[in-house]
Amino acid sequence: MKTxxxxxxVLAAAVGFVALPFLVFRAPLAYELFVNQKIFYYHVPAxxxxxxxxxxxxxxxxxxxxxxxxxxDDTAAAAGDLVVIFGAIMLTTGPIWGKIAWxxxxxxxxxxxxxxxxxxxxxxxxxxxxxxxxxxxxxSAGLAVFGMADVPLVYFAVNFWKTQHPTNNVIPTxxxxxxxxxxxxxxxxxxxxxxxxxxxxxxxxGERRLHETHDLAADAGLVE
Amino acid sequence: MRDWWNDxxxxxxxxxxxxxxxxxxxxxxxKCFANSERWAYARxxxxxxxxxxxxxxxxxxxxxxxxxxVVEAVRYQIHKDEVDKFTRAKSYVFAAYGIAWAVLALxxxxxxxxxxxxxxxxxxxxxxxxxxxxx
Lengths: 224, 135
Hints:
The complex is a heterodimer.
Chain A: H1 2-26, H2 40-67, H3 70-101, H4 110-131, H5 136-160, H6 179-219
Helix pairs in contact in A: 1-6, 2-3, 2-5, 2-6, 3-4, 3-5, 3-6, 4-5
Chain B: H1 2-32, H2 49-62, H3 64-134
Helix pairs in contact in B: 2-3
């Protein structure tokens, strides 16, 4: 497990720190958006990986609700934390792009508001897991399923409502030289996601083992 | 009589000069920008650049060097605007990349520290349990 994790981290670092910046630097400048458009190569992959994390958390949550196996719960917890991390990247890089493109950091349009709502659902998810006490696993699994249902709303918000955020047509219409760094950005973030998911799952199983050892120690009268 | 005739000749010369200057002044704009209605912007039928291009076309036909001077001034202004935009946008792009990598690095560091602490706690507890079992 440790070796796989190490290989994943090295791969992600190689892609993220060597190949990706090189391709992003070489990518042509977009009309009007100019150099600001290069934020796109980090912002959109972060959003896509956040959606992947939401689905992993939601599906693992359903798996836990059906089977009550701890491995599903660990996967859901790990993915839920990653939604917060990749969502934080999306919600900070997006407004930085917006400040240049629109002149304001934030607008309350449907895409931005629903994305913020999705992120806040998973912040609540993390808080429930941390402070929910007994039954927190089931409650948080329900929250993850609720968050998963919000993903189509976020994705199609630009089609349902008139928004300031660019539409979903941007990706299929990327010009030559722009597609490669974008795809590499997704690969890089997916590798990081898998590595972080595995690492967080390892921490979760460590916490479980600590609880079990703690119970053993309590039985022996060593701890309270 | 001769004086009167001289005065009349001078007056006639002035009138002829004024008339020819007036007609020349009236002819310049008519030749250069005779159809200014061409510059009107038909919002539904064309892009915003289209009337500008027609205006430039007329200006080139009127006075090519003046048209070149105007284009040069506009080009300089655009260059200046783009350089300002680039300088400002560059720092924002670096900030965005910095934040993205910092969030990921902090999260990875937090995980590593937590894992290390857990391993140490588990090892300490297990050692105490083993010692208790032996005694």
